């Protein structure tokens, strides 16, 4: 090429590269599908649309920008209503990128029909594309409710081909399940997937479709379980196309899929929870617990290299970190709830933290969260909430540095500035156990299901692993907490069981992008009872309100409280449709309150 490129640049582009080159060989097909996965990774999973502005909208995390109240920014204040408004600056990015993923999937499904590659090979590739399309729609429909449903790539540039009105959310869910059915039936087995990718590039096998479908069914079940206070009003969802005529149907399907993955799937729980987030050994990127993971940055073209930056303090372990570090943090209330639940240890310094928890016996806390203190710049030790002398804020104390804990789980020794090599587990086997537990609780309460398992049995598998940890010498030890649950401890109270399962999901999988979706699928009354009211009481405590620079006043506002009116909370259960989409999509009308053609129904915050 170096010596014979005369006239090369004069050639028409179509003669040197066209759609046929994407489908002409098995390697070309693999490359095209990997590109689709990379686009999916670029949809916000490791970037601020999710890390900062969905996690914090759950009420369990907090935005680490200390100027949020001094210089109010709607990107933060909207999250205090558990939502993002139409003009939220990070709202449109993930919306657009999910549709880019869908476009690539649809385009591939169109052109692969002309591929000369063996049909059996193509079928496996096509199944994987259906999986990605299904999951892109799953994120879209959970965030925005009714969304446009594109099942074919446009061939022209007319508005009619490029844009569509919003479709009923239940129609989108039915399409998601149908796509996952195809994926489950046709995708590669685990061994075949390993032969292609080595389990480290974000690729998935057929049981990933089964596992993710179990979460889709569980989500549908909880939506139908709380119809009166969920995001739609005066509408009757119809899921009959996928065999669901009520919440119990959805929970039965979720349980069947979860049990199938547990019994027959190729995945295994890691022996030690902390090894999932060790990021030092080659096998740390090839855990058999992973069902679907967003790849580390070298394999994702830079798409999603910011998890560590969003979570870690500046100069953590002496690294030359960006000033943007620590932008999404576990809130104080979540830290206290975790400690209270599993062997909490209260402080002893009278007048400062004698009334709060400073640690607990659950080994997962230290794996997930940086608290008390940490090694910072040039070997110095930095204080962090809840340090015994830093709970009540003072004027000279940096809230951003130590006023709230940090997440830790995505730190790896190569991390520097804004690039880290940690993967994000989108779905792992532990979650499947939690899905089985929740579905069993909804269907059978505290009794056993048809597999002879109670909800408590499934959770105890996760708790048994959670108690194990490695000491400084690498030896395996076991803590007394979290102790096994006992059915009789719940005294026949199924609501208490379901609440406990929710919190255990949060403690097992914090900052793995489940918080927002787990809270919002449960309905407005649930959010008021589980988050708004108890967190409002917490924010009134002296430890949070006193001092010259108090936590509550600095981050929330002096007289702030979350809405406790469920009808107001319901307005935030889905994000408002992005303003940019209103601008470009002629089938949407900002002045109408029709959920299929307008901005949003009147029951939704949109601004």
Description:
The chain has 607 residues and is mainly alpha-helical. The chain is built from 25 helices and twelve strands. It has helices at residues 13-16, 20-23, 26-41, 48-51, 74-77, 91-111, 119-144, 159-162, 169-186, 190-197, 206-225, 247-264, 307-311, 332-341, 364-368, 399-402, 429-444, 455-466, 494-508, 515-520, 524-539, 542-545, 551-555, 566-570, 579-584, and strands at 61-63, 290-294, 328-330, 345-346, 357-359, 369-370, 372-375, 381-384, 406-407, 424-428, 468-470, 476-478. A two-stranded antiparallel ribbon has the order 1-3. Strands 2-10 form a two-stranded antiparallel sheet. α11 runs antiparallel to α12 (247-264) and α18 packs parallel to α19. The radius of gyration is 24 Å and the shape is globular.
Question: What can be said about this structure in brief?
Answer:
The chain is mostly helical.
Based on CA inertia axes, which overall geometry fits?
globular
Please give the largest β-sheet. Answer: 2 strands, antiparallel
Helix content: 40-55%
* Whole-angstrom Rg: 24 Å
Topology:
Layout: H1 13-16, H2 20-23, H3 26-41, H4 48-51, E1 61-63, H5 74-77, H6 91-111, H7 119-144, H8 159-162, H9 169-186, H10 190-197, H11 206-225, H12 247-264, E2 290-294, H13 307-311, E3 328-330, H14 332-341, E4 345-346, E5 357-359, H15 364-368, E6 369-370, E7 372-375, E8 381-384, H16 399-402, E9 406-407, E10 424-428, H17 429-444, H18 455-466, E11 468-470, E12 476-478, H19 494-508, H20 515-520, H21 524-539, H22 542-545, H23 551-555, H24 566-570, H25 579-584
Antiparallel strand pairs: 1-3, 2-10, 4-5, 6-9, 7-8, 11-12
Helix pairs in contact: 3-6, 3-7, 6-7, 7-9, 7-11, 9-11, 11-12, 11-17, 12-17, 17-18, 17-19, 18-19
């Amino acid at each position: 090429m170096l010596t014979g490129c005369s006239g090369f640049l004069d050639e028409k582009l179509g003669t040197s590269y066209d759609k046929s080159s994407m489908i002409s060989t098995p390697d070309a097909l693999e490359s095209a599908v990997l590109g689709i996965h990379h686009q999916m990774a670029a949809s916000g999973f490791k970037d601020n649309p999710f890390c900062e502005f969905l996690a914090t909208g759950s009420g369990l995390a907090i935005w680490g920008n200390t100027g949020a109240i001094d210089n109010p920014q709607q990107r933060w204040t909207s999250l205090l209503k558990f939502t993002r408004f139409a003009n939220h600056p990070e709202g449109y990015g993930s919306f657009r990128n999910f549709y880019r993923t869908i476009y690539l999937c649809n385009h591939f499904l169109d052109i692969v029909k002309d591929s000369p590659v063996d049909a059996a090979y193509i079928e496996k590739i096509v199944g994987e594309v259906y999986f990605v399309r299904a999951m892109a729609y799953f994120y879209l429909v959970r965030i925005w409710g009714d969304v446009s449903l594109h099942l074919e790539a446009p061939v022209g540039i007319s508005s009619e081909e490029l844009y569509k009105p919003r479709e009923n959310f239940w129609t989108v869910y039915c399409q998601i399940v149908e796509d996952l059915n195809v994926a489950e039936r046709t995708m590669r087995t685990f061994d075949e997937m390993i032969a292609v990718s080595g389990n480290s590039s974000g690729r998935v096998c057929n049981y990933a479709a089964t596992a993710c479908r179990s979460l889709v069914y569980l989500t549908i079940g909880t939506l139908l379980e709380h119809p009166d206070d969920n995001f739609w009003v005066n509408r009757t969802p119809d899921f009959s196309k996928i065999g669901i005529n009520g919440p119990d149907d959805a929970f039965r399907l979720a349980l069947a899929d979860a049990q199938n993955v547990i019994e027959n799937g190729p995945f295994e729980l890691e022996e030690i929870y902390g090894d999932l987030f060790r990021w030092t050994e080659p096998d740390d990127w090839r855990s058999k617990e992973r069902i679907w993971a967003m790849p580390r940055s070298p394999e994702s073209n830079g798409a999603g290299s910011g998890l560590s930056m969003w979570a870690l303090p500046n100069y953590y372990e002496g690294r030359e970190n960006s000033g943007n570090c620590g932008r999404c943090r576990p809130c104080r209330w979540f830290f206290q709830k975790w400690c209270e639940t599993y062997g909490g240890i209260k402080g002893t310094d009278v007048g400062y933290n004698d009334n709060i928890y400073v640690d607990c016996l659950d080994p997962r806390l230290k794996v997930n969260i940086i608290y008390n203190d940490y090694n910072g710049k040039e070997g110095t030790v930095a204080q962090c909430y809840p340090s015994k002398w830093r709970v009540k804020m003072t004027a000279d104390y940096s809230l951003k540095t130590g006023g709230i804990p940090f997440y830790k789980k995505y730190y790896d020794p190569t991390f520097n500035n804004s690039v880290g090599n940690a993967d994000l587990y989108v779905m792992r086997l532990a979650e499947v156990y939690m899905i089985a537990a929740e579905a069993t609780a909804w269907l059978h309460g505290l009794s056993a299901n048809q597999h002879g398992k109670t909800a408590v049995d499934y959770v105890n598998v996760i708790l048994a692993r959670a108690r194990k940890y490695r000491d400084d010498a690498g030896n395996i030890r076991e803590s007394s907490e979290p102790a096994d649950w006992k059915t009789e401890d719940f005294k026949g109270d199924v609501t208490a069981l379901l609440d406990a399962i929710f919190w255990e999901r949060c403690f097992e999988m914090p900052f793995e992008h489940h918080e927002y979706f787990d809270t919002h699928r449960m309905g407005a009354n649930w959010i008021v009872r589980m988050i708004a009211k108890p967190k409002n009481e917490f924010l009134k405590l002296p430890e949070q309100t006193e001092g010259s620079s108090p936590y509550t006043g600095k981050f929330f506002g002096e007289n702030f409280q979350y809405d406790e009116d469920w009808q107001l909370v319901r307005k935030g259960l889905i994000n408002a449709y992005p303003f940019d989409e209103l601008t470009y999509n002629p089938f949407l009308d900002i002045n109408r309150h029709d959920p299929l053609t307008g901005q949003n129904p009147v029951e939704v915050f949109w601004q």
